[in-house]
C-alpha cells in the first residue's frame, strides 16, 4: 500500500479539491487518512421537536400528517410536508424533488435528520435526509465532523474519506510491533483507521482513538529516548575535576541553601564530573532559587578553567543576572560581562575580543550570544534561563561554540513530571520543590468587579507606604490590536480619573524591546508607581518593592499564567497581595480561583490545573514549545501517556532496540522527519 500517493488520485478528488485539501495540509493518502474528525454527529439520537433549538442539526422522529404538496416557484418547485410528534408540529421542505410526492404515508412514522430552522415560532427543516422507522441508513449512523476550510463541505470531505478508507481497507501495514499491541490491549491499525472515521457506535471511536493516541505518544517517547541515548553514547563531554566543588561558593551567599537546592546541585555536579555531556533541565517555581544553583555550577566551571555562557530571554533579565552574579562572584575573582544588543559597537567588540582570548569568565546575555561572531576560548557550560523562550535549535547553536559543553536549562514553569518528560524527554530533570524558608505567602483574593473601589483604596494605601503595583489588563481574545487598545484605555483611566496623583505607565507586547526595557527599568527604579500591562510583564523580572498584582478578567487566564503573573510580586521583604478580579462564569471558574487563593505552590497548581482542565489553558499564551499532536491531547490522555512512556522505556532499555526492530525504527524515523527539531 503506497501511502505517499498524491491525494489527487483518490476517487472524488478533482483539481479544485486538491487545492482545498492542500490548504488543510493534506497532500498524500497518508495525510488524508490521518486527518481525524474533530467530533462526531450522532444521528441516532432523537430529540422531541419542542426541545430542538434553532440552527442545530438534529434527528427527529415524527408522524407524517399531510401528503406532500407541491408549489411552483420561479424556476423551481418546492415540496412541503407537515409532520408532528407529541410535542409540536413542523414543516419539512425540499426543492425540485417531485419524486417525493408519493413517498410518505399519512399517519406513518419517519425519522428526519437536518438543520432545525425556527421561523416565527415554527420549526422548518429544509432538505433533510430521512428513513422509514426501523431503517437507520441515513439517520442512524454516527457521522464524522472534520475541521474544515472555506469551500470544502463536510459532505464532500466525508465522501472523499469514505473512498480513501475503502482504498486502504485491510491493506495498511501494522506500525507497532505485535507484542506491544497485545501487551497494551490495542486494536490493529486497519480497524482503528476505519473506526476513527466511521465508528458504528461510540465505543468504537473510543477504542480506535486509544490505539492512535498510544501510537502517537509512544513514538514520541521512543524518539526522545533515542535522542537521549544518542547524546549519552556519542558525545563525550567535559569531565570536571572533583577538586572544585559547586558548594564552595555557597558560603558566599547570605543564606543557607535549601535542601532541594543542595539536592539538585548534587545531581548537577555528578553530571559535570562524569565524561558524559550534561543535558539537564532545572525546574523550580518562581523564587525557588534557581539563580543561586546556576551560579554554583558556573563557579565550578570557571574554577576548573572553563568559560560559561548564561542566556536570558530579555535584556532586563540579563542585566539583572549580571548584577546578581557580580555581587557574589566579583570577590571570588571571577570576571562577568554583559552582552546585549543595546551596548555600543565599540564596547561590544571589546567584549568579543576579551571573550575570545579568555579574559571573560562568564558572559551573560540575550540572543546576541548566539550570533556567529561570538567566540569563546574554552566554553564549558551553557545555562539558558526561562527555557521556553528558546528553541532546541538555539540551545544547540550556542552549545556548538564550545567542544560539547555541559548544558543546563532552567524553567520556571512548574509542570507535572509526566508532562516534563514529554516536553523535555531528551533532558535529565532536576526539580527544586521547596521555597527558601520565611517566604511570606502572597495573600490572594478573588473578587467580583463590584470591588473596584475598595481595590483602588487598597492600592492607594500601599503606594502611600512606598510600594508599587502591577495591573494586568483584561485579555481581549479577538486581536492584538484590541489588547493594545484596552491597555492604553485602562492606563488613561488610571492616569486621568483614578490616580492622577501617581505615575502610571503601560507596557504591551507591540512596544519595541528598547521601549519595554525603558519602562521596566523605570519601574524598577521606582519612577513609576503603577504599571498597567498585558501579560508581557517580563518573566522573572525582579522588582522587590512591588507588592500588589491586580489581574482583571482573571477567569480568562489559565492557572499557570495566573501563577506566573502572581510570581512578579512577593519578591521582597513586604507582604504581597494578588487580587484576581473575575466574573463567576461556570463552576470551574470558582474552583480555579479557589486553587489560586489556597496555594502558592506551582506544582500543586499545575496538578490541579490538569484536573480542572477543560476550557482553561495551562500553557496559555505565555508558553510555546508544546509539541503538536494529531490526535493525542496530553492533558486528557495522561493515562495513555503513562502507558506509552513505560512501554517506551522498557523497549529502549535495549540500546539496539531500534536496530533490531524495523517497525520501531520506522516509528522513530517518522517522528524525526516531522515533529522534533534536531
Ligand atoms: P528563581 O528560581 O525564580 O530564579 P531566584 O534565584 O531569583 O529565584 O531567587 C529568588 C530570591 O531568593 C533571590 O533574592 C535569592 O537571593 C533568594 N534565595 C535563593 N536561595 C535562597 C535560600 N536558600 N535562602 C534564602 N533566600 C534564597
Ligand atoms: Mg530566575
Explain what the structure shows.
The structure is a single chain. By secondary structure, the protein is of the alpha/beta class. The chain folds into 4 domains: 56 residues, no CATH class; 97 residues, Nucleic acid-binding proteins (OB fold (Dihydrolipoamide Acetyltransferase, E2P), Beta Barrel); 196 residues, P-loop containing nucleotide triphosphate hydrolases (Rossmann fold); 158 residues, Rossmann fold (3-Layer(aba) Sandwich), CATH 3.40.50.300. The longest helix is centred in the N-terminal third of the chain and has 33 residues. Helices cover 38% and strands 18% of the residues. The chain has 21 helices and 22 strands. The site of adenosine-5'-diphosphate has 15 residues, from α8.
Secondary-structure map with pairings?
Layout: H1 15-23, H2 29-33, E1 39-42, E2 57-64, E3 69-73, E4 76-84, E5 89-95, E6 109-119, E7 122-126, E8 129-132, E9 142-145, H3 154-168, H4 178-183, H5 189-197, H6 202-234, H7 259-273, E10 279-284, H8 290-303, E11 307-311, H9 315-329, E12 336-339, H10 345-356, E13 362-365, E14 379-384, H11 392-399, E15 406-411, H12 417-423, E16 428-432, E17 443-447, H13 452-464, E18 468-472, H14 480-498, E19 504-507, H15 513-524, E20 530-533, E21 546-551, H16 559-566, E22 577-581, H17 587-598, H18 602-612, H19 638-652, H20 657-660, H21 662-674
Parallel strand pairs: 5-7, 10-15, 10-16, 11-13, 11-14, 12-13, 14-15, 17-22, 18-20, 18-21, 19-20, 21-22
Antiparallel strand pairs: 1-9, 2-4, 2-6, 3-4, 4-5, 6-7, 6-8
The structure holds adenosine-5'-diphosphate and magnesium ion.
